[in-house]
């Protein structure tokens, strides 16, 4: 028998529930016993009538409110996780297990690790996850927001009303949680957050969301985790022992949204892209694909670098499992996958991380430390353990959950320096008075140490554009611990040199040779990336001087230099066939130019260079070691010619590059041994739409030259490079 609620003044707890201000809804809602009396209380803003179960005792509305109470008799058997049967104002019936009958989910140890910044898998705890509690299926939600007065889960299941599902505050760790029974995969949700100091109410998407709606919508989507059946076991078993230091690595950098699109200009699904891209990359001979950020982002023209979903592949191309299929198919075809990842900054979009709980939580409060004015973005506060844990967990997420083979860390220089792109009065020195961002440095070292330890065989690459020392040296020697670093200095020098008219190149010869002074101080990648073909810089082809024939010859020469120079290789999509127009994120590549012989020639050349690179250990075994390189002649600036040896434990190759359009007959160079030298590559070959000038095989002569006891004379084609093997 039930006892109707009396018409009494509402106490402060009930008022705060009604006004959606209560920090501890579990102390009010659900089942409570006091003085041997039990009360069951629910707050249902859209209910007309409510009962405990379909045939159980009715609940009484507290007059003038949407609070309902029931005082069941001791003889009534109410289940521990009872159901609420209610009818809404439109006459529709609902049967829901009461969320406020469940205890806490997140344990003390998880909270402790997170507070210390050492919970590598916190993404498995925070966010929205399918969960079974006491035999009941539903979704468990958790979010970190220490300055909130109240947080609610809102979604398509409760009319996006923050009054319906307020969360439990776990206390000092700043985490809020709620298990909502009955929810399933595909449910849309956000968090409604009320700041404890100002009362400001914010609607935020889940920082740990693993899928989001298609832009411009921003709700997170509950996903079914661990449903994908991987078939890349052979690759994953082999990866921990892969000696990437001494193996070839030729990376094809891709923006998935503009590599190819369908006939209507729409994005392709990850699965469609997988089939097309894997076939193309295999044909071209690249070993890896590097993806511009496919982490969820609101704006197409940001290319993904202004990330709002650090745990979610963008929905532009499908679901998380669709992306798993993409990676899986790459691995099955012996192609590694690297993700461009952005832990340096994040956008100011109001639905995302900025002032997440009404305070600068993920970012610094002071704009001198917390804002990139050049980019219009916010800088992470690396002094907060929870923020560092968020980023570290994101790195683990991509390496673990999607089997990625590495991360390219964007904008590392902006993380290292407090005065990066700032005037003298726009930054705050560190505790020692210097410009080093000590907290960011500690984060990078810790991230590199633990990812390499826990995921051996993966690579973490730095886009770092300064002379910061020991970027790729172990953390225990004082280094940052990255696997490799983009060689931005080499890239800028070489492109500046190549843009000079050949008649002027003799005055800039040092730009061609300077890189070897520091080539082995770091583990370098040689990047001709997306940054060099946008924002009015033009395509690589159109950077080259001269008439049409010379531009293509120069481009072929540039690629020959890159593939024979010490360092791993990276080439942005479209550059491999000499696209003439600047890259645009809004359309696919100019594939039609392959109807023309010049462009087909460049594509064939890159294909052959990849094959040559992978089959000749001299071109990759000692990429990061001086014993793999030796100058033959770096001083012939007057003719703009350089020659060098690339060496491995088993072979020795000779590379000669002519940077003028003047053919050189009987050009003599010293060679290390007597014998016959075979020309195994010539960028001027007719196969590449060149003039087909070159050499077959050349016999050495016992004439000392260039500090060697033997020498050869060769024909050097114009604007071309040749490779000789004994």
Automatic annotation (TrEMBL):
Coiled coil: present as a keyword of the record?
Answer: no
Using the record's annotation, list all stretches that form the Glycosyl hydrolase family 13 catalytic domain. Answer: 253-598
Q: In the record, what terms sit under GO molecular function?
A: 1,4-alpha-glucan branching enzyme activity
Q: Which UniProt keywords apply?
A: Carbohydrate metabolism, Glycogen biosynthesis, Glycogen metabolism, Glycosyltransferase, Transferase
Q: Which Pfam families has this protein been placed in?
A: Alpha-amylase, Alpha-amylase_C, CBM_48, GlgB_N
Work out whether the entry's keyword set contains Transferase.
yes
Q: What is its EC number?
A: 2.4.1.18
Extract the coiled-coil ranges from the record: none
Q: Catalyzes what?
A: Transfers a segment of a (1->4)-alpha-D-glucan chain to a primary hydroxy group in a similar glucan chain
Q: Which CDD domains match?
A: AmyAc_Glg_BE, E_set_GBE_prok_N
Catalytic residues (UniProt): 410 (nucleophile), 463 (proton donor)
Q: What pathway or pathways are given for this protein in its record? A: Glycan biosynthesis; glycogen biosynthesis
| Family annotation (InterPro entries) | A-amylase/branching_C (IPR006048), Branching_enzy (IPR037439), GH (IPR017853), GH13_cat_dom (IPR006047), GlgB (IPR006407), GlgB_N (IPR054169), GlgB_N_E_set_prok (IPR044143), Glyco_hydro_13_N (IPR004193)
Query: SMART domains this protein is in?
Result: Aamy
| Cited PANTHER family | 1,4-ALPHA-GLUCAN-BRANCHING ENZYME
What's its job? Catalyzes the formation of the alpha-1,6-glucosidic linkages in glycogen by scission of a 1,4-alpha-linked oligosaccharide from growing alpha-1,4-glucan chains and the subsequent attachment of the oligosaccharide to the alpha-1,6 position.
Q: How does it assemble?
A: Monomer.
Q: Which family does it belong to?
A: Belongs to the glycosyl hydrolase 13 family. GlgB subfamily.
Q: What is this protein called?
A: 1,4-alpha-glucan branching enzyme GlgB
Q: Which organism is it from?
A: Methylomonas rivi
Q: What's the name of its gene?
A: glgB
């Amino acid at each position: 028998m039930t006892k109707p609620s009396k018409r009494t003044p509402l106490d402060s707890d009930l008022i705060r529930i009604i006004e959606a201000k209560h920090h501890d809804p579990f102390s009010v809602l659900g089942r409570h016993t006091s003085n041997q009396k039990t009360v069951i209380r629910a707050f249902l803003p859209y209910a007309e009538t409510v009962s405990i179960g379909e045939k159980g005792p009715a609940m009484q509305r507290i007059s003038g409110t949407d609070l309902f109470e029931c005082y069941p008799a001791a003889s009534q058997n109410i289940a521990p996780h009872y159901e609420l049967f209610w009818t809404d104002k439109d006459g529709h019936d609902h049967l829901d297990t009461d969320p406020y009958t469940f205890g806490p989910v997140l344990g003390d140890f998880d909270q402790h690790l997170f507070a210390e910044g050492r919970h590598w898998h916190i993404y498995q705890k925070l966010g929205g996850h399918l969960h079974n509690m006491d035999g009941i299926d539903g979704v468990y939600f958790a979010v970190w927001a220490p300055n909130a007065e109240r947080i609610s889960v809102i979604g398509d299941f409760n009319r996006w009303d923050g009054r319906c599902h307020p969360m439990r505050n776990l206390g000092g760790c700043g985490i809020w949680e709620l298990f909502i029974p009955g929810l399933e995969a595909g449910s849309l949700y956000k968090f409604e957050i009320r700041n404890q100091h100002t009362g400001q109410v914010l609607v935020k998407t889940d920082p740990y969301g693993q899928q989001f709606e298609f832009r411009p919508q921003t709700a997170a989507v509950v996903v079914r985790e661990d449903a994908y059946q991987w078939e890349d076991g052979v690759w994953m078993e082999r990866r921990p022992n892969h000696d990437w230091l001494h193996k070839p690595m030729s990376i094809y950098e891709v923006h998935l949204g503009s590599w190819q699109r369908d006939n209507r200009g729409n994005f392709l699904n990850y699965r469609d892209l997988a089939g097309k891209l894997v076939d193309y990359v295999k044909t071209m001979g690249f070993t890896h694909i590097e993806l511009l950020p496919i982490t969820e982002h609101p704006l197409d023209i940001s290319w993904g670098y202004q990330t709002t979903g650090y745990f979610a592949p963008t929905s532009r191309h499908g679901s998380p499992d669709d992306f798993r299929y993409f990676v899986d198919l790459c691995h099955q075809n012996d192609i590694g996958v690297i993700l461009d990842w952005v832990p340096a900054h994040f956008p100011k979009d109001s639905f995302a991380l900025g002032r997440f709980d009404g305070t600068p939580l993920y970012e610094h409060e002071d704009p001198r430390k917390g804002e990139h004015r050049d980019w219009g973005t916010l800088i992470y506060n690396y002094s907060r353990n929870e923020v560092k844990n968020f980023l570290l967990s994101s790195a683990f997420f991509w390496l673990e959950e999607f089997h990625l083979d590495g991360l390219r860390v964007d904008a590392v220089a902006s993380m290292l320096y407090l005065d990066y792109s700032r005037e003298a009065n726009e930054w705050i020195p560190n505790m020692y008075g210097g410009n080093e961002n000590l907290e960011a440095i500690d984060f990078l070292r810790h991230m590199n140490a633990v990812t390499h330890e826990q995921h051996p065989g993966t690579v973490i690459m730095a886009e770092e554009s300064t002379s910061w020392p020991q970027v790729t040296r172990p953390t225990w020697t004082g280094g940052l611990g990255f696997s490799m670093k983009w060689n931005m200095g080499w890239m800028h020098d070489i492109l500046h040199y190549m843009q000079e008219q050949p008649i002027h190149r003799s005055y800039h010869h040092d730009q061609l040779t300077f890189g070897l002074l520091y080539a082995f101080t770091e583990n370098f990648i040689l990047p001709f990336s997306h940054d060099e073909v946008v924002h009015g810089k033009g395509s690589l082809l159109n950077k080259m001087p001269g008439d049409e024939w010379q531009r293509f010859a120069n481009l072929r020469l540039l690629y020959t230099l890159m593939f024979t120079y010490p360092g791993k290789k990276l080439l942005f999509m479209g550059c491999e066939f000499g696209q003439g127009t600047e890259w645009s994120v809004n359309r696919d590549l100019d594939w039609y130019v392959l109807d023309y012989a010049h462009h087909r020639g460049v594509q064939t050349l890159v294909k052959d260079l990849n094959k040559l690179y992978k089959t000749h250990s001299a071109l990759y075994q000692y990429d990061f070691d001086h014993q793999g390189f030796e100058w033959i002649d770096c001083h012939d600036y007057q003719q703009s010619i350089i020659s060098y040896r690339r060496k491995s434990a088993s072979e020795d190759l000779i590379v000669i590059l002519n940077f003028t359009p003047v053919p050189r007959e009987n050009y003599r160079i010293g060679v290390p041994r007597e014998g016959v030298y075979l020309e195994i590559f010539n960028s001027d070959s007719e196969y590449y739409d060149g003039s087909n000038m070159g050499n077959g095989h050349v016999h050495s002569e016992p004439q000392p030259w260039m500090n060697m006891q033997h020498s050869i004379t060769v024909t050097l084609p114009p604007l071309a490079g040749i490779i000789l093997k004994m």
